[in-house]
Amino acid sequence: MSEQICLFDTGPTTPPTPDIPPTLTPGPVPDLAQYDVILVNLSGGKDSQVALAVTMEAAVRAGVAHRVVCVHADLGEMEWAGTAFLARVHAVANGVTRFEVVRREIPDGNGTRHETLLQYAQRRRMWPSSKARWCTSDLKRGPIHRLYTRIVAEIDPVRIGRAVRLLNVMGMRAAESPARLKLAPYRHDAAASNGRRHVDTWLPIHAMSTEEVWERIYASDIPYSDVYDSTPGARDRQGMSRLSCIFCVLSSRRDLVLAARREPELADRYVRVEQEIGHDFRYREPMSAIREEAQRQTAAAHARDLLAELDLEPVG
Ligand code: SF4
Q: Residue of the nearest CA to atom 4 in ligand 1?
């Protein structure tokens, strides 16, 4: 979320065609002064943390730092504890005064209620997948688009006599995956635009390597998520390789097993839903098998700790 990581799809990756209106400014990077609002998506993860810092530097240079707004798509208990708070810290530490939290809401009686990914999967009786990323579209992109609508109404296209110009900023990088390598770092978002708003997307750290991202984070005094480390404060990056939903359908097996070791009760709930809906969390990779491996590793670690305490040599 990215993203956090969240792995937002950014839509078309091909250069603009005559049918697709171009970006507001020619590029290759946007002229931030041309936008009414610069909306930075914060997942609480390392990439959005640095994307915000880079965006703020550019916004200060352009004299429009006051137009930067941050948004966090809250995944509730599906994301690591403290993630929404950390995203807010990132916004405040960069001098951003408006921080919005959005989440998926569904009708409930006369009102609405939050629906988590786990509840949604249970209701749909299926998990998302790399080919069917309804989790991203319905739990992140949809709620963020509703924020677009709210912001546009505040500015009021009728009052200003033109469509509101929105720049959507995300932390995706080419080094993350072949799919992200193909993303255009600055492009028009026709799907999110309409008569009332012109939306462009900018990926300010698309060309940055993972090491460069970490160098920037270490050089700043701004805290980063401790899920990346083996233990909080270790600064060893031996924890999760990505910040995403705790159990993300796109994660590596190593990350999923580590997540199940760190959040065994949530893993139990995923296993129960998996059994109830009769659909494996991933193709040929059920959550029950991930939990089993996590339990095996946890038991082995406890045995090693016990031997160390007793100062005994392992047998055999
Ligand atoms: S499961 Fe992964 S891809 Fe889906 S919303 Fe969560 S982090 Fe994004």
A: 135
